[in-house]
Amino acid sequence: MRMMAILLGSAAFVYFVTGIKGRFTKRKRFYFALGTYVLVYLITMILVFLDGVP
Can you give 1-54 as a three-state secondary structure string? Predict the structure, then answer.
């Protein structure tokens, strides 16, 4: 449950930050947020599988 909160929080943060200046469309902001979600997930899984996270 904590993992999902971290992923959702990071994606929501990126979605919010990319919308501040208004340069990106909603679709591009969504893609950035989705990419962040996947990237954070992959980094976390790599660290877990390499025993980098206790």
Answer: CHHHHHHHHHHHHHHHHHCCCCCCCHHHHHHHHHHHHHHHHHHHHHHHHCCCCC
Global pTM value? 0.81
pLDDT in tens, 1-54: 888 999 999 999 999 999 999 899 999 999 999 999 999 999 988 888 887 555
Rounded CA separation 54/24 (Å): 38
